Amino acid sequence: MPDNIYHIPALLSETINGLALKSDGVYVDVTFGGGGHSGAILSQLGPNGRLLSFDQDFEAYENAITGGRIDVNDNRWEFVHGNFRYLKNFLRYYNAIPADGILADLGVSFHHFDTSERGFSFRFAGPLDMRMNRQAEKTAAKVVNEYSEEQLANIFFLFGEMKNARQIAKAICKSRERNPIERTEQLTELLTPFCGRDKEKKDLARVFQALRIEVNDEMSALREMLQQALEVLSPGGRIAILTYHSLEDRIVKNFLRTGNIEGRLQKDFYGNPLTPFTLVNNKVITAGEEEVGKNPRARSAKLRIAEKTGSL
């Protein structure tokens, strides 16, 4: 796989097919990234179709210009430089309500993982940053050096599902008393004794994942986006979401099955389920062996698709 690829979208054809695109429809890609999904949507839209693509990292737009995935002069396309947690406000601003389809690929772009100065990966030496939005104030270094031991333990347990979260948090707090922990390699060296010998990379990835989720407030943003997506989708409109870890997948699964984050299924007087969505795929869609062979990072992708019922 070439090193300079910004991102390869997982389950591309399955995702686009699942949206059941209409040539004159209004569509929203809330995670533009490398532009793969957006480009595929645009290729199927007619002259009256519209696509709005969100990304809080402006480097994604700069890559769209240089990478050729999108014709930035296409008047059917609008790049929205913002967090998808503000979905409804932006769609209202661009007069794009109701939308006929919403797509979210919750995976981190290759570009972020593979660019050392962004600090997303333990595989590269670099500053502990992890900000999707480089204008944001909170960095991973700020979290590691300023959060209390209890706060750190909660992050590693809730977002990284680390059983030894308290020991890790205690070790970080002890180490930072001597010197600030400001780089990925410092944190990796500190974490290594707490990682299982046979699953060191997996444990390191979990701790880095936990910090990334905290830095970017990913779980709260996802909840807010989903709730707003329900409001802005037209009846019969579809939502397709790709998840990559159990925390976000649980939220998405609950929401698409019941219409709420908690997964509480309400029923009418006759015992019929009251849910604003009809699942398009009852069984989660995952990548096949051929795709995983070409793109190993697709292995953890899970695709869920649902169609909105009722009225807007």
Description:
A seven-stranded mixed β-sheet has the order 3-2-1-4-5-9-8, sandwiched between helices. The protein has a two-stranded antiparallel ribbon with strand order 6-7. The radius of gyration is 20 Å and the shape is globular. Helix content is 40%, strand content 14%. Helix 7 (149-158) packs across helix 8 (165-178). The protein has 312 residues and is of the alpha/beta class.
Task: Return the structural class.
Answer: alpha/beta
If you consult CATH, what is the topology of the largest domain?
Rossmann fold
Based on the structure given, which CATH architecture of the largest domain is correct? 3-Layer(aba) Sandwich
Per CATH, the class of the largest domain reads Alpha Beta
Q: How many structural units, i.e. domains?
A: 2
What secondary-structure arrangement, pairings included, does this model have?
Blueprint: H1 12-18, E1 26-29, H2 36-42, E2 50-54, H3 58-67, E3 77-80, H4 87-93, E4 99-105, H5 110-114, H6 140-146, H7 149-158, H8 165-178, H9 184-191, H10 200-216, H11 218-232, E5 233-243, H12 246-258, E6 266-267, E7 273-274, E8 277-279, H13 289-294, E9 302-308
Parallel strand pairs: 1-2, 1-4, 2-3, 4-5
Antiparallel strand pairs: 5-9, 6-7, 8-9
Helix pairs in contact: 7-8, 7-10, 11-12
